């Protein structure tokens, strides 16, 4: 019974269906049919059809499930991270939790006041000043004028918009707007704070400040935070537990480190890149690259990696002529998206060598210190003793992305390559 009292938010069999392209069902007959079922107290017949929310396929139905049978619980004082690829259903879930839209099926049970920050300037009136919008947002959240007035100086100071607080919000930049919106949502003492990707609009200094505030809200004030972000470093630093959404369904729930690893390795079977059919290659052909994989520490195929994390390139070759493998060396050269050479690794320098019993090799990089961005790999296999004896060379052998992280635990994310 005590455990049940700690649960502040419970989501059961939550689903949301949309009809593509049109409002309503699209035909009078469908609308009448839906109305007839409703007045008889029966289930909407169109909830029995529909495709999953997979954007990569055309689908066979004009109905799509943005969310399907989502279940989870959140305890008081917990910070829950919600991650998933674009279109996974994260924003739809948060809009339902914030009462912006209603679910098609399922239920939400919550205890206490919910404040949400879903989009830049949500709930702000552009013609009103920043100060007036603070009172407006506070009233929407159910605060009295006296309660808002007791917090307003603290809100303005935190937002860093003191000079412009009596200026209409329509003249604010997106960064200023999100600063003020977050300050209002965080300081008006909601029991549950819902934060979507909007913090990405703010600068690095404000993101650090906002994350610190959310940590204070959860740990010191015992309030609950639901946090959605593609910034996995921020999710890991803030959240203790998370859920992973894919095509509108919860596919994994657990501790945040496990969630992030599962997300990075999910849907990446294409990372097993076949090289045997590549035509554009250089070398005498005695040895040829067959395929390459990018793996994490647990051996999962990945296409994205956090800056500073461990990774392993597993490379397979095939004999076409007798070659002394002990004399072979593999080079792995990394280029950025501007075709600038960033780093190179050679198997002999790394203490890795072949034997005649196998033709695969692992190049392990304990800490891939690259800035956030897109990268590609050039592979070469050559002789260590015979100068310029090259067996095979392939450009664009594999591509991968590096995601920014707070590798140094300094409170600042490693900058991306486009700074």
How is this fold's topology laid out?
Elements: H1 2-5, E1 7-19, H2 28-39, E2 51-52, E3 63-75, E4 79-83, H3 90-97, E5 105-110, E6 114-117, H4 130-140, H5 145-159, H6 174-187, E7 192-195, H7 204-219, E8 224-228, H8 232-238, E9 241-246, E10 249-255, H9 256-265, E11 273-274, E12 281-282, E13 287-295, E14 304-306, E15 311-319, E16 328-336, E17 341-346, E18 360-365, E19 373-383, E20 390-403
Parallel strand pairs: 2-3, 4-8, 4-9, 6-7, 7-8, 14-20
Antiparallel strand pairs: 1-3, 1-5, 9-10, 11-13, 12-20, 13-15, 15-18, 16-17, 16-19, 19-20
Count all strands and give the number.
20
**Mean pLDDT score:** 82
- From the spread of the alpha carbons, the general shape counts as elongated
Helix fraction by DSSP (H/I, runs of at least 4): 10-25%
Uncertain segments of ≥5 residues (pLDDT<50)? 1-5
Question: What profile does the largest beta sheet have?
Answer: 6 strands, mixed
Order of helices and strands: HEHEEEHEEHHHEHEHEEHEEEEEEEEEE
Q: What order do the strands of the largest sheet run in, or round the barrel if closed? A: 6-7-8-4-9-10
Helix-and-strand structural type: alpha/beta
Query: How big a fraction of the residues is strand?
Result: 25-35%
Give the N-to-C terminal Cα separation. Answer: 53 Å
In DSSP terms (H or I, runs of 4 or more residues), the helix count works out at 9
Global Rg: 27 Å
